[in-house]
């Protein structure tokens, strides 16, 4: 499941170049996702029309998902990427449910991961303080060692 979440974020993260299709404007809600897929080489421009209202077959979905999996190992998600993914999961929840994706489970996992991240950040800060204190004590011991 983690891999699937990561893959969706890769697919739907934000890009910064112009989409060359005539039938999708920069005001369209999916513009940035299409732009990013083009930039990452997931989608190819094989015509001047995107045809965004056409249905995707399971074969096409598997093909593009496979391309995302192949690219996913070298990329990491930012908080913005995760927010975009969350919005897209909500937007496409009916379609994702048809494919067996449980959006409620996904959202609960995101919440759980957020809580774990906060907990880990708290523990990290505690460890930093302990390390600073230990380093201070080591310096003090080394200083006292020189006086003996």
TrEMBL record:
InterPro entries: Cell_Envelope_Struct_Comp, SLH_dom
Key word Coiled coil present: yes
Signal peptide bounds: none
Tagged with keyword S-adenosyl-L-methionine: no
Parts forming coiled coils: 110-147
Keyword list, A-Z: Coiled coil
UniProt cross-references to Pfam families, sorted A to Z: SLH
SLH domain: residues covered: 17-79
Recorded superkingdom: Bacteria
The protein, known as: S-layer domain protein
Species in which this protein is naturally found: Ilyobacter polytropus (strain ATCC 51220 / DSM 2926 / LMG 16218 / CuHBu1)
């Amino acid at each position: 499941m983690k891999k699937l979440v990561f893959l969706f974020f890769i697919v739907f993260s934000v890009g910064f170049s112009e989409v060359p299709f005539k039938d999708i404007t920069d005001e369209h809600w999916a513009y940035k996702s299409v732009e990013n897929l083009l930039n990452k080489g997931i989608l190819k421009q094989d015509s001047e029309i995107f045809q965004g209202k056409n249905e995707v077959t399971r074969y096409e979905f598997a093909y593009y998902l496979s391309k995302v999996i192949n690219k996913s190992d070298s990329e990491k998600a930012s908080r913005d990427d995760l927010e975009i993914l969350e919005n897209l999961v909500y937007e496409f929840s009916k379609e994702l449910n048809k494919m067996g994706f449980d959006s409620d489970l996904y959202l609960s996992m995101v919440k759980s991961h957020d809580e774990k991240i906060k907990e880990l950040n708290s523990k990290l800060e505690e460890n930093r303080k302990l390390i600073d204190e230990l380093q201070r004590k080591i310096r003090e011991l080394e200083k006292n060692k020189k006086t003996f």
